[in-house]
Amino acid sequence: MKRITSVLIAATIGLFAPIQNAQAAAEFNLRFAHFWPPQAGMSQQFKAWGDAVEKDSNGRIKVEMYPSQTLAKAPKIYDAVVSSIADVGATVQGYTANRFPLSQVIELPGIAESGALGSCVFQTLLDQGDIADEYSETHPLFVFTHGPGMIHTKGTAVKTPEDLKGLLIRRPTAVVADLLTGLGSQPVGMPAPQIYQSMSRGVIDGATLPWEGVKSFRLNELADNHTDINLYTLAFVVTMNKGTYESMPADLRQVIDKNSGLAWAVKTGQLMDEQDKVGLAQAKELGHTITTIEGGVENPAWKGVLEQATENYLSQNGATARSIYEKIPALSKNCRN
Which NCBIfam families match (predicted)? Predict the structure, then answer.
């Protein structure tokens, strides 16, 4: 993990090196839209990004946070950035189906065992140009993933794929929907902020989320069974309105550039990992049933179905998607070094 550690150190040092301009009133007020609740760890991470931008610009850029879908609903955040409703947005690529098929290769089973690693790999794919064309409508700042996405259910323990048959399980994206369908459940699409109400009303029997999401969206209050398997790692993007970025003078664009890329991707993935620990500890404290699938996605009861779902996705999305998938092991090795 030397590379991940080194970029985290670089990001920390960067926080204390603002550009040397005289203090002045804000020239740009950036509206930052996202869907996490204000108290969530991710909200604090985005605030830290805003604070860094404000400090590095000597106050010439101000960042106003709009959490909890207050500026745009989760599936509409990317388009809100495109249309200048928001200047910056953080969202899930797969909330708009078929728009980011190459980016969503990162969601396939077993790709990364942590948010920090997944984020390093994902950002490297963006930096190397493999997925850059999918973001041509905006100015992407960084991409990241959460840690392992798992299955969380109310009243039903899921130990084998057979236990999923007939269950209505929330899925975040079409990629995860295909995985769940192959395993025998009935996937129900919805963004994370809708899960609590849907489960409390019996609309769904469970949900797929990392432990971070279970904590952030209060699922430990409802789901009492958790199946620990690295089913997927969700793709996220923090992106900026292209016109807003291009209208800035060169020195302020440099501030944005400094607070973009690999360092912030890895820091955000690491925050996801830290929040995973908190969500898991909370479930244990509540006495929930946690089933760990031995061998994870390599477990014989799960492996065949998940491999087939992976092959189906790659076949549907062409040679470029397969090429990206095949280069991920080498990128993962590099990110660990």
Answer: TRAP_S1
Give the domain ranges of the chain: 2-146+235-274, 149-232+278-330
Question: Residue 174, exposed/middle/buried by CB under 10 A (0-12, 13-18, 19+)?
Answer: middle
Homologous superfamily in CATH for domain 2-146+235-274:
Bacterial extracellular solute-binding protein, family 7 (3.40.190.170)
Reported in sequence order, the residue ranges of 81-210 that DSSP labels E, i.e. its strands, are 88-92, 138-145, 149-153, 168-171, 186-189, 206-209
Whole-structure pTM over 0.90, yes or no? yes
For the domain made up of 149-232+278-330, give the CATH fold: D-Maltodextrin-Binding Protein; domain 2 (3.40.190)
Q: Mean pLDDT per 10-residue run, the chain (337 residues)?
A: 58 49 74 98 98 98 98 98 98 95 97 97 98 98 98 97 97 96 97 98 98 98 97 98 98 98 98 98 98 97 96 97 98 96
DSSP state of 71: S
In degrees, to the nearest 5, what angle opens at C-alpha 257 toward C-alphas 136 and 252?
110
